[in-house]
Amino acid sequence: MYAQMIKTARSGVKTREEMTEQERAFQDKIDADIKIEPRDWMPDDYRATLIRQIGQHAHSEVVGQLPEGNWITRAPTLERKAILLAKVQDEAGHGLYLYSAAETLGESRDELVRLLHEGRMKYSSIFNYPTLNWADIGAVGWLVDGAAIVNQVALQRTSYGPYARAMVRICKEESFHARQGYHAMMKMALGSPEQRKMAQDALNRLWFPAMMMFGPHDSESTHSEQSMAWKIKVKSNDELRQQFVDQTIPQIEYLGLELPEPGIKWNEDRGHYDFSDPDWSEFMDVLRGNGPCNVDRMNARRKAWDDGEWVRDGLLEHARKKAARAVAAE
């Protein structure tokens, strides 16, 4: 469905004069903050935009297990192993919630996975960077999940009901993820000189990739204007990025770590921190598949899908037989 719909997607936001009567009634519901539900009429472009966003979000949760799952057996203590195992398990659940939300729009998870494997759907660029040591796992929990919370708290107010409701539970679990990451970084920042150096290095390397998670500047974002008009997004990329910086800099200072880049300064007039732009050419290069781990991540996902085929086939056959027995019993 998505693959066909996206070919005819309209660019730009329609004026009320350009809308049909049905489209105006739909926009009136959006403007009144009335949730759109699966059986409600919606424009094809709205449906396609949601499938794209929810699908990419689901893929990000699933692919996001890979850089952390690699460290479960190498975590420094049994407690850290248990925490990381729970976190990775949560990410799988988040993917399930989101694939289920996409299914309410008429798109199967099998199709979404196929589009991912063919390179026609994306996932968050942050997961194409390596986790080189244990400090990276702390930084991922703190920065990456911290950035995810900034975005996902806003998505609790998105206009599509199933997506908004999925965000409520996801945000609660993401707050645990961010706290455990910050706690791990605190242990290292207050530890030996070697541990402190590792913490600083992880912060420096992951700072800009975390900021890229919010997407390009609003002026360069293809979908932002229409998504804001439909309240699929309720805050712009630049607003979310600023919020992330403003909440994270005091946390860095509390840890006693150095700021990750020299452009960070408090701006009294704006009441916000100033900061430098990420390297957007690097961001686009990673999106095109040329990041440090793009190939490894996609190979791992395709292998997991292929290796799990017998499980899916067995479950489908069990469901078929169960349904047949139910019909025979009647």
What can you tell me about this protein's structure?
- With 330 residues, this protein is an all-alpha fold.
- Helix content is 66%, strand content 2%.
- A two-stranded antiparallel sheet has the order 1-2.
- Strand 1 and strand 2 form a beta hairpin.
- The longest helix is centred in the middle third of the chain and has 29 residues.
- It starts with a helix and ends with a helix.
Can you describe this structure in just a few lines?
By secondary structure, this protein is mainly α. Helices cover 66% and strands 2% of the residues. It has helices at 2-7, 21-31, 44-63, 65-69, 78-103, 109-117, 134-155, 161-189, 193-212, 224-229, 237-255, 280-290, 294-307, 309-329, and strands at residues 265-267, 272-274.
